[in-house]
Write a structure and sequence with these properties.
The complex is a heterodimer of chains A (335) and B (274). Chain A has one domain (72-334): ABC transporter involved in vitamin B12 uptake, BtuC (Orthogonal Bundle), CATH 1.10.3470. Helices cover 73% and strands 0% of the residues of chain A. Chain A has helices at 9-29, 37-43, 51-85, 97-110, 113-116, 120-140, 146-170, 180-185, 193-210, 214-220, 224-229, 234-256, 262-270, 278-302, 311-334. In chain A, helix 3 packs antiparallel against helix 14 (278-302) and helix 6 crosses helix 12. The radius of gyration of chain A is 20 Å and the shape is globular. Chain B has helices spanning 2-20, 32-41, 63-66, 76-82, 95-103, 117-131, 134-153, 177-185, 190-193, 204-210, 227-230, 235-240, 261-270; strands spanning 27-29, 47-51, 71-72, 86-90, 107-111, 161-164, 170-172, 188-189, 199-201, 214-217, 247-248. The chains are: A mainly alpha (335), B alpha/beta (274). The A-B interface holds A 31-33, 48-49, 51, 54-55, 58-59, 109-112, 114-115, 171-176, 178-179, 182, 190, 192-194, 305 and B 167-169, 203-206, 208-209, 211, 220-221, 223-231, 234-236, 239-240, 242.
Chain lengths: 335, 274
C-alpha cells in the first residue's frame, strides 16, 4: 500500500533541499524592516559594512542558520533514536535529552561559567543531554515498550524542568526568573553569529558520528539477534548514537532552549516516503527538521509586531496533537 | 491675574504655617526615592528609618550615608513601632499600606517619580518644605542647576545620535529621565525620534536601522549572567557604532529622579565624540 508513496532517495533529497533553500531565502527576506537584500549581501563585502549589511549578516543570517542547524539536528536525532530504540515515540524531546541539555546550559550560563569560557555552555548542554538520555534508558530498561519509555521520559523531563525553575530562581541575575519560558519553549530569535559559532562544533561532530549508523539501523529492524549475527555490535552502536545525540542536541539546545516535537514529528511524516528504511530516513529527517523549524520561525514572524511568540510554542502546537494521534494509533494497534 | 494672586496667597500661608510648626523629628521613608532625598536634606536627628534598598549600592546613590540609619521593609508592624511623625512614600508604594497608615492618623506624603528636571526640582523643594530645611533644598537645586547649565553651554552644534539599550531590548523614549539627560548632554535620543513612549523594548533591526553613533546602558545587577544581559554583547551593536563600546552609566542615577541627574548628564556629555 505504501509502496507508491516512496520516492527514490535522490528525488526525495532534492525535493526537500529545494523546499529548504526556498524557506531559508524567505527567512532572510523577512524582518521588521524591508531591506534590499541583494545590496545588503554585496555591502557585507565592504570594509565598513552599511547598516543593511549588518542587519543581513548579524541579525537575519544567524537566525536562519540557527533555525536550519537546530531543526536538522532535532530531526536527525529523532530519526536515529527511533531507529535505535525501535520505538515510534522516541525523540530528543520526549525522552529527556532536550530538557537535560537545557538544564546543563542553565547551570553554566546563570552561574558565570560560560563567561569564563564560551564553550562551557555547549559542554553543559552535552553533559545534561547525555545524563538525561542515559537515565531514561536505564530507568526504562532494555527493550522497553513505548509506554515504559514515555513514562521514564516524563519523569526525567519533570525533574529537569523543576531543577531549571529552581536554578533560575536561585540565580543572581534579576532577569533569570523571566527566562524560564525561554528554556522550556525555546527561541531562535535575537541570536548572533557568535552564538552559531558556539553551537556549531558539537552539532557537526554529532552529525559526523551519526553518518554511517544507517546500515546498522537498517539491520536492527530485523531484530537485535539478527543484527548481531550480521556483525553489528549493539552496545557500541547504542553508545555511538547516544553520544552523537548528546553532542548535537546538547549544543543546539544550549543556545535555543528546548524546542519540542520536531524530533518526534518529522521522522514519522517522512517514514512512508523512504519506504520505512532507517538509513534513508536519517538524511530526509535532517532536511525535514530544518524545513519544519524554519517554517515555524517564519510563521511566528508573521504575527503582528510586538507579539513575541517563541518558536517552540508553535512547534508544540503542531506537535502535541500529532503526539496524541500517534498514541491513539498505537492503542488501536494494541487492541 | 487672580490665579497668580491665589498662588501667592497659598505660598504665603504655607510659609507662615511652616515657620510656626516644628521640624518633624521622626521621619520614616519607605521608598528608595524618598530615602535619597531625605538623606540629602534632613538633619541626622530627623531620620527615624529608611527603606532597606537605600543601603544597596547598585540602586542607591546614598548607600554610604544610609548605613548609619535603621532600615525598614515597608511592613506595617515596623512602621507602627517606629512611631513616625511623617511617612514618605512614592506613587509606586504599597497602596493598602498607605491607606491603613492614613486611617491610623499618620501623615503620609506621596512623591511622584519625575521624568524631567522640573519634576526633580519640585520634589526637592517639596521635601525641603516638609522637613523645614528650605535653605538646604534651595542650595541643592542651585548646585544641580549650575552643573546642568554648564553642560548646556557646551552642547555641540551638531548633535550625535545615541540610544539607551538595556537587557531584554529595553530603551528609554519620550518622558523618561534618560531622554531628558541625553538631550541636555547634547545627544539626539533615537528612541524618542522613533516614537517610543516611556520605557519600552526596541527591535534590534529598528535599532540598527536608526544607525546610532553611541549606545548607553545601565547595568541593574553588574556581573550577573542571563540571556537578557547576554543580548548586550550582540556583535552587531558594536559594529554599528564603528567599534565604540557601549558606555555604562550606573543604574543608581536613574532609578529615582534626584540631583544626581547632574552626574549622569556629565557622564553622558563626556561620552560625546571629541
Amino acid at each position: 500500500m505504501r509502496q507508491p508513496l516512496a520516492l527514490s532517495q535522490t528525488q526525495l533529497t532534492s525535493t526537500l533541499s529545494v523546499i529548504l533553500a526556498a524557506l531559508f531565502l524567505l527567512s532572510l527576506f523577512l524582518g521588521s524592516n524591508p531591506i534590499p537584500l541583494f545590496q545588503a549581501v554585496r555591502d557585507t563585502l565592504l570594509d565598513t559594512p552599511s547598516v543593511i549589511a549588518l542587519i543581513f549578516s548579524e541579525v537575519r543570517l544567524p537566525r536562519a542558520l540557527i533555525a536550519l542547524f537546530t531543526g536538522a539536528t532535532l530531526g536527525l536525532c529523532g530519526a536515529a533514536m527511533q531507529g535505535l530504540l525501535r520505538n515510534p515515540l522516541a525523540s530528543p524531546g520526549l525522552i529527556g535529552s532536550a530538557s537535560g541539555a537545557a538544564l546543563g546550559a542553565v547551570c553554566m550560563l546563570y552561574f558565570g561559567m560560560s563567561a569564563v569560557t564560551t564553550m562551557a555552555l555547549p559542554a553543559g548542554g552535552m553533559i545534561g543531554a547525555l545524563a538525561a538520555t542515559l537515565l531514561v534508558y536505564l530507568l526504562a530498561g532494555r527493550d522497553a515498550g513505548s509506554l515504559t519509555l514515555i513514562l521514564a521520559g516524563v519523569a526525567i523531563n519533570a525533574l529537569a524542568l523543576a531543577l531549571i525553575s529552581l536554578l533560575l530562581n536561585l540565580a543572581p541575575s534579576p532577569y533569570a526568573v523571566r527566562e524560564i519560558v525561554l528554556w522550556m519553549m525555546g527561541s531562535i530569535a535575537n541570536h548572533s553569529m557568535s552564538d552559531l559559532q558556539i553551537m556549531l562544533p558539537g552539532i557537526l561532530l554529532g552529525w559526523f558520528l551519526l553518518i554511517g549508523t544507517g546500515r546498522s539501523l537498517d539491520a536492527l529492524t530485523l531484530g537485535e539477534e539478527t543484527a548481531s549475527t550480521m556483525g553489528i555490535s549493539l552496545p557500541r552502536l547504542r553508545w555511538r548514537i547516544f553520544i552523537a545525540i548528546a553532542l548535537a542536541v546538547g549544543s543546539a539546545i544550549s543556545i535555543t532552549g528546548s524546542i519540542g516535537f520536531i524530533g518526534l514529528v518529522v521522522p514519522h511524516l517522512l517514514r512512508p516516503l523512504v519506504n520505512h528504511q532507517p538509513s534513508r530516513l536519517l538524511l530526509a529527517s535532517a532536511l525535514g527538521g530544518a524545513i519544519l523549524l524554519l517554517a515555524a520561525d517564519i510563521c511566528i514572524r508573521l504575527f503582528p509586531a510586538g507579539t513575541d511568540i517563541k518558536v517552540g510554542v508553535l512547534t508544540s502546537l503542531v506537535g502535541a496533537p500529532f503526539f496524541l494521534y500517534l498514541i491513539i494509533k498505537s492503542r488501536r494497534f494494541v487492541l | 491675574m487672580s490665579k497668580q494672586l491665589i498662588t501667592a496667597l497659598l505660598l504665603l500661608i504655607c510659609s507662615l504655617s511652616s515657620q510656626s510648626a516644628e521640624q518633624p523629628v521622626r521621619v520614616v521613608s519607605i521608598n528608595l526615592c524618598t530615602d535619597q532625598l531625605l538623606l540629602m536634606l534632613a538633619d541626622r536627628t530627623q531620620i527615624a528609618s529608611i527603606s532597606y534598598l537605600a543601603v544597596e549600592s547598585n540602586s542607591s546613590f546614598m548607600a554610604e550615608e544610609a548605613r548609619q540609619y535603621p532600615v525598614n521593609h515597608e511592613k506595617i508592624e515596623e512602621l507602627l513601632s517606629l512611631k513616625p511623625d511623617l511617612i514618605l512614600a512614592s506613587e509606586y508604594s504599597n497602596r493598602a499600606l498607605i491607606q491603613l497608615m492614613q486611617k491610623l492618623g499618620h501623615q503620609i506624603e506621596i512623591f511622584p517619580l519625575p521624568s524631567d528636571i522640573k519634576g526633580i526640582q519640585a520634589n526637592i523643594s517639596r521635601m525641603a518644605r516638609l522637613l523645614k530645611q528650605k535653605e538646604r533644598g534651595q542650595q541643592l537645586i542651585k548646585q544641580m542647576n549650575q552643573r546642568i547649565n554648564k553642560i548646556i553651554q557646551q552642547q555641540p552644534t551638531v548633535r550625535p545620535k545615541a540610544l539607551f539599550y538595556q537587557p531584554n531590548h529595553y530603551t528609554s523614549g519620550r518622558n523618561t529621565l534618560q531622554d531628558t539627560a541625553l538631550q541636555l548632554a547634547g545627544w539626539r535620543n533615537l528612541a524618542t525620534e522613533l516614537g517610543i513612549e516611556g520605557y519600552n523594548p526596541i527591535n534590534i533591526e529598528d535599532l540598527l536601522m536608526a544607525d546610532p553613533e553611541q549606545l548607553f546602558t545601565s547595568p541593574y545587577a553588574p556581573g550577573s549572567h542571563s540571556l537578557a544581559e547576554h543580548q548586550l554583547s550582540h556583535p552587531a551593536l558594536q559594529r554599528v557604532t564603528a567599534g565604540k563600546k557601549m558606555v555604562e552609566i550606573d543604574y543608581k542615577y536613574w532609578i529615582c529622579g534626584g540631583p544626581m541627574i547632574a552626574d549622569a548628564i556629565e557622564q553622558l556629555h563626556r561620552g560625546l565624540p571629541q
